[in-house]
Write a structure and sequence with these properties.
Shape: globular
Number of strands: 15
Structural class: alpha+beta
Largest sheet: 6 strands, mixed
Oligomer: single chain
Order of helices and strands: EHHEHHEEHHEHEEHHHHEEEHEEEHEEH
């Protein structure tokens, strides 16, 4: 029987979420590389994305949690085998310490119980696997032919074979070269002490639940199993069991039920850095579930790079802005790298943002670091909504930039 849910305010819920997400970041000590690894291990995954209007999403998400982050750190962690590439809800970097929990999906794909993108050509896959076993790490382009494409080594089928072998766990990606995957045999990539035992369904469900709630503060079954095939029923049953034995607490926020780890309530005693502004990636772990952001932060967000240009309201690559514990604006940006120039094409304020002078000051301070992160030394502000905010922001920028 489900216990009666306790209630917390929307402000408490937002604080719990942000502190669990470690954004804005608290003061940090230790090596910068260790802080980056800690962020990945805590969040559970960092989504990989190819869009390069500004620094790519995987770098952006980590930079927002580690002010000393350098883009070389992901490559270093991959080479040191502290993280690995696989699939979360999308392509992602995952902590090597969680490797065994990637095995249920790999087994399901290998057994044909779950499909990814490509049909499997088993004969071609065996040929690809043999060639990598003989020659060592290879890229998709190593299977291409100049001139007429021939049989099994024509590029597109070979790429599909590589991805199928990757998804079912026989190949891994030890590193990337110019952002292109390099593939090698899994046994050549895994550290010797890696736990490769297959978790049983109960272990797997508990892992999904505790990892999600640790990183996100609170959650419901649909959020915990988001885009993870064939997990919803198992997660729902395990949530009920964990509530019954006191491992989780059921709470109510704005009429919705969420699950929380009991220890997470301690975070509500920690102050949230409300003055610190953060410019977020559209693929940030905080934002990736849009319905959740609507429910908890009253922020209706759509990434409009997938929307026809004439139908865009905010811009091609609009970045949500977090300030004062709320999502208060969105900023369409593009880095013109040859000129070291960052374009703010459109900055749109949310209707509830009233303290525009304080916001302008906080945004300008963060833009100093954001310019450096994007390897730019100047910026150009094109448009704001409302239009009257533009001169106010330009005045602040002139004084601080």
């Amino acid at each position: 029987m489900t216990k009666m849910a306790e209630s917390i305010s929307i402000q408490q819920a937002r604080k719990l979420v942000l502190l669990s997400q470690r954004i804005p970041p608290a003061k940090q000590s230790g090596r910068a590389l260790s802080v980056t690894l800690s962020a990945i291990e805590h969040l559970g995954y960092i989504q990989i994305d190819t869009i390069s209007a500004i620094q790519r999403a995987h770098h952006h998400t980590l930079w927002n949690r580690n002010p000393r982050y350098l883009i070389s750190q992901l490559d270093e962690l991959m080479v040191n085998r502290r993280i690995f590439e696989y699939w979360s809800h999308a392509a992602a970097y995952l902590p090597m310490q969680d490797f065994r929990y990637s095995l249920p999906r790999k087994q399901a794909i290998s057994n044909g119980n779950e499909n990814h993108w490509y049909e499997r050509d088993k004969q071609l896959m065996e040929s690809v696997l043999r060639r990598i076993a003989d020659e060592g790490p290879l890229m998709a382009k190593d299977f291409e032919h100049n001139g007429e494409k021939r049989g099994e080594w024509s590029s597109k089928p070979a790429k599909r074979a590589l991805e199928n072998l990757f998804m079912q766990g026989e190949l891994m990606v030890p590193y990337r070269h110019n952002f292109h995957k390099v593939y090698d045999l899994t046994e050549q990539v895994l550290p010797d002490d890696t736990d490769t035992s297959l978790p049983n369904p109960q272990e797997y469900a508990r892992f999904l639940i505790t990892r999600y709630l640790r990183a996100n503060g609170l959650g419901m079954a649909s959020e915990i199993s988001y885009l993870l095939k064939n997990t919803r029923a198992l997660v729902s049953d395990t949530l009920q069991e964990m509530v019954s034995n006191g491992e989780l607490i059921l709470i109510k926020v704005n009429g919705n039920n969420y699950y929380v780890l009991p220890k997470s309530f301690e975070l509500l005693n920690i102050p949230l850095s409300r003055n610190k502004l953060k410019i977020l990636s559209p693929f940030d772990n905080l934002l990736i579930q849009r319905k959740r952001m609507q429910a908890l932060f009253d922020f209706d967000y759509q990434l409009e790079c997938y929307v026809p240009e004439l139908l865009r309201q905010y811009g091609y690559f609009s970045l949500p802005i977090l300030w004062d514990g709320k999502l208060v604006a969105r900023m369409d940006c593009k880095a013109e790298r040859k000129k070291s120039l960052l374009h703010i094409k459109h900055l749109a304020l949310e209707p509830g943002l009233i303290k525009t002078d304080a916001f302008a000051h906080a945004l300008t301070k963060e833009l100093v670091s954001f310019l450096q992160f994007n390897e730019c030394n100047s910026l150009r502000l094109h448009n704001t909504s409302p239009a009257g905010f533009k001169p106010e922001l330009e005045k602040t920028m002139k004084n601080l930039l």
